[in-house]
Amino acid sequence: ETHGLPVVLTRSSNQFGPYQFPEKLIPYFVTSLLDGRTVPLYGDGLNVRDWLFVQDNCEGVDLVLRRGEIGEIYNTGAGNECTNRHITDRLLAILGKGESSVEYVEDRLGHDRRYSIATDKVAALGWRARRSFDEAVLEQVLAASPDRVPAECPHFGLCGGCALQHLAPRAQISFKQSQLIESLVRLGGVEPVSVLEPLTGPV
Predict the structure, then answer these.
(1) If you placed Cys at 53, which of 65, 95, 136, 163 could pair as Cys (CB 3.0 to 4.6 Å)?
(2) Residues contacting 36, CB < 8 A, separation 6+
(3) What pLDDT digit, counting tens, does each position of 152-167 carry?
C-alpha cells in the first residue's frame, strides 16, 4: 500500500501432495508405512488441522491472482478438518497396516490443538477444493509407491468414482496398486466396478 504495488496475498491451511518432502505428517506416515516402519503419534492424537491438497491450493492462488482485489488477503482451506488420529487410522486402513505400526510418543511442547481458517472471501471468487480428503490421500500413497503407474485420467485417475475405471485397464498396474485401490473401495471412497476383470499382461 505504501509503494502502490499491486499485491494480493493468499494464506493456506496445511498442504500435502505427491513428492512433498517426507518430514511432514502425511508424507512421512505414508513413506514410513510403505517401508514397514512405525509412525509416531503425538500425545492423544486429537490435534486438528485442515488438510488442503496442493493442486487445489495452486488453483486458488491462480484464481486470486486473476480475480482478487488488490491489497486483499484470501485464505484457502479445504474444510477437511481432521485429527491426527483420524489421518493415522485412514492410512493404516488404506495400506493394510495394524495398530502395531503406531508408536505413541509424548506430545511436544506448545503443540497447537487446532488450526482453522475462514475461506469465505476466496469462495466468493468461485474457488473451492475439488478433491475429497480420501481422494487426495490415495494420490499421495500412489505417488509414494515405488512401483506406481501413472494414470491416464486428467484427474490423475483418482477422481472418486472413476478411479478404478482409469487405473484398472492399464496392463502394467501393479499388484500393490490394485490392493490400494481395493482398500479405498472397501472404505467407501469409490464405487466398485467390474473393469478389474479384463487386466492383461504382467501384473
Answers:
(1) 136
(2) none
(3) 444 444 434 343 333 3
CA distance 104 to 79: 27
| Distance in angstroms (rounded) separating the CA atoms of residues 83 and 190 | 22
Smallest Cα–Cα separation from 82: which of 32, 38, 35, 29? 29
CB 50, CB 80: distance < 8 Å: yes
Residues comprising the chain, all counted? 203
Q: Determine the distance from the C-alpha atom of residue 130 to the mean position of all C-alpha atoms in its chain, rounded to a whole number.
A: 11
Q: Buried (b) or exposed (e) across 133-161, using 16+ Cβ within 10 A? A: bbbbbbbbbbbbbeebeebeeebbbbbbe
pLDDT, mean of residues 32-57: 93
Residue type, 185: V
Q: Which residue has the cell 505504501?
A: 2
Which helix (H) or strand (E) covers residue 48, if one does? strand 48-53
**For 185-198, b where at least 16 C-beta lie within 10 A, e where not — what string?**
eeeebbeeeeebee
Predicted pLDDT at 143: 78
The region of weakest confidence among 72-76, 93-97, 171-175 is 171-175
Alpha-carbon distance 120 to 112, whole Å? 23
pTM for this model (two decimals)? 0.69
